[in-house]
Structures are given as structure tokens and as C-alpha cells.
Write a structure and sequence with these properties.
alpha/beta; Rossmann fold; 10 helices
């Protein structure tokens, strides 16, 4: 691995977000805000505040995703990590440490002592908080925290030892079909014969359940959505006012996805000084901030097969609301 290295008291931190990456961020934001349908990539939800808001979302009664996935992990952890003797556990988009704790408990002390945990996230706060929590709980575990954009920098992150890659939550649903193929096929091509990917999918279900999960009664998801504007403000020296925008989320039945938007409540002009541009919004115009695709069993089989994987095992809850697949590279 190459990147800037720093040392915490308990773990190593590798940061891939260098100056060239920051330049790419500005261009990505420029492209999104000047498109016919204005967009902000959903990865810009996540700074320290955004990560905290998402952890709050995970505890909301309407948000079934985290508790359903955790129930699968708790019921099946020992079986899920049965293939793994020792090596590297790399969690992509790590967020909090709750899920990996279940899998680490399933490993047991002997295998943990021979293993390393590599949390990867675009939010430095997320990887540091997760790493500190886990080194306190499992002092025998070696931890290397990696700050990186998994949508752009996966090729930089390599391991020589056997590796279990974990891509949990519903993040794979945020990718378009072409992005998903590029991302997964890239991972498959880099995997060794003994490596495995544990990949999670949020399944198609009742529309009312889906839409409630993204329109919670406390308005936490709305704040999370608007946080992208604050992140963009910092990245491009902008003056977005989140109070001028409303959170909108609905299920698109044709594309089997939740769409999240920010709708302008009035006509306004936003300055982005670092981009040397102004962006005009009409009342009612939206910024598309996230897609969250939902999946069917046949759709999952097609996706993993086309991306270069074999399904070794699959795990689900009794209602089949969520699935975790153990995949090997073809």
C-alpha cells in the first residue's frame, strides 16, 4: 500500500486522499452541479457530522436495514467466517464498529490474534473511531485504518495475505449498474483464490416500508441529506443554505430504487468560489443526491455472475428483507 502514513497510539493510519484527489473532487462537484439534472454524489454525505447522523439513522424505528443485517450477522457469524483462518479483514465503508464486532467475536481469540483488520472509509473520523473502539475491545487484533474513496482508489489498496473483504450495509445499492459492474469486477480481478467477499444486498419489499425508511418521522434522514450541501460548501468554498432546500425521497418502481433529492424551496443563486461559478436554482428544482437500489434473488445472481464471482453461500433473515452473499472470484 502507498499513501501518507501516520501512527496513532494503538494503530496505523494510511491516508490516500492527497492533493490530486482534492482536485478531482472539485471537478466532480462542478460536473454534477452543471448537469441538466443537478447531482451531488452521495459520498459527500460523509464528514464527521454526516457519519454521526448516519449512525443515528441506523437506530431509527423506520430504518430496518441495520437491525435486519445485524440479526443475520448474529445468527450466522460463526458460519460466515468459517472459511477464514488468518489474514486480513478489510471492511469497505466501515462506518461504526458494530457489525465487525459480531464477526470478530465469531472468529474467536486465536484467529483474531493472527489477523489484521483494515477499515476503509472516506471519512477519517469513521475509520479512527472504529479503530479505537476495536483495539480497546480486542487488544490482540492488529488494526490499520485506511482513509480512501472506494469508488476511485480500490486499486491502490492491496494485501498479500488471504483477505476477507466485507462490503456490508446497503451501499452497493448506491451504485449505478455500470458503476456496480466496474467496482465489483475490479475487486474480483484482484482477489486471490482463497479470498472471499461478503457482499450485502437490500431486497425489494413493500413500498411503504421502503419509503418510511428514508422519510423518518424525526427528520434525521433529511438532515443527513442536507449535510451534503455543507460538505460541498467546504470543498468548493460555496454558500449553499440548507434551509433553502427540502428533503425528498420516493421509490421508483421502474428502476427498483429509492431516489433522494434536495428540492429548492425558492429560486436562489449559489456561489462556488473555488469553481469560479454561480449556480441558479429555480423554485422546485432538485439536486439528485442518492439512489438506493433494491434487489431480487435473480437480479443478485445476474450481478455477481456478470462481475466475475461464484456464490459460495448466502444468508438472509426470515422475511428475506436482506441478504449477505459469500463470494469467490471465478
Amino acid at each position: 500500500m502507498n499513501g501518507s502514513n501516520t501512527q496513532d497510539v494503538q494503530f496505523e493510519i494510511i491516508n490516500y486522499l492527497d492533493h490530486s484527489y482534492k482536485k478531482d473532487v472539485k471537478e466532480e462537484i462542478r460536473e454534477g452541479l452543471t448537469a441538466r439534472q443537478k447531482t451531488i454524489n452521495c459520498k459527500y454525505f460523509y464528514d464527521a457530522r454526516g457519519s454521526r447522523l448516519f449512525e443515528d439513522i441506523c437506530t431509527l424505528p423506520e430504518y430496518y436495514v441495520t437491525r435486519t443485517e445485524l440479526s443475520i450477522l448474529r445468527n450466522c457469524a460463526a458460519e460466515m467466517v468459517n472459511f477464514f483462518d488468518s489474514g486480513d479483514l478489510m471492511e469497505l465503508g466501515c462506518g461504526s464498529s458494530k457489525k465487525i464486532e459480531v464477526l470478530l467475536d465469531g472468529l474467536g481469540g486465536d484467529r483474531r490474534g493472527k489477523s489484521s483488520y483494515l477499515p476503509v472509509d472516506i471519512s477519517e473520523t469513521a475509520v479512527i473511531d472504529s479503530s479505537r473502539a476495536l483495539t480497546a475491545m480486542y487488544p490482540e487484533l492488529k488494526v490499520t485504518a485506511i482513509v480512501a474513496d472506494i469508488t476511485r482508489q480500490m486499486a491502490m489498496i492491496t494485501t498479500e495475505r488471504p483477505c476477507a473483504l466485507l462490503f456490508l450495509g446497503s451501499t452497493i445499492g448506491n451504485f449505478s449498474a455500470s458503476e456496480r459492474f466496474d467496482f465489483l469486477s475490479g475487486i474480483a480481478s484482484s482477489m486471490k483464490s482463497e479470498d472471499r467477499l461478503l457482499l450485502a444486498f437490500d431486497m425489494v419489499k413493500d413500498i411503504g416500508i421502503l419509503e418510511a425508511a428514508y422519510n423518518d418521522s424525526r427528520g434525521v434522514t433529511a438532515e443527513f441529506n442536507k449535510n451534503a450541501l455543507l460538505v460541498v460548501n467546504r470543498e468548493v468554498d460555496g454558500n449553499f443554505d440548507p434551509s433553502n432546500f427540502a428533503h425528498v425521497a420516493h421509490f421508483d418502481e421502474d428502476n427498483l430504487r429509492i431516489e433522494m433529492h434536495l428540492r429548492a424551496l425558492k429560486a436562489c443563486l449559489v456561489k462556488c468560489n473555488a469553481l469560479e461559478m454561480e449556480i441558479a436554482f429555480e423554485e422546485g428544482e432538485t439536486i439528485h443526491t442518492e439512489n438506493s437500489h433494491k434487489f431480487t434473488p435473480s437480479g443478485i445472481e445476474a450481478i455477481v455472475g456478470q462481475s466475475g464471482f461464484n456464490i459460495e453461500a448466502s444468508y438472509s433473515d426470515p422475511e428475506h428483507w436482506f441478504s449477505i452473499m459469500e463470494l469467490s472470484a471465478v
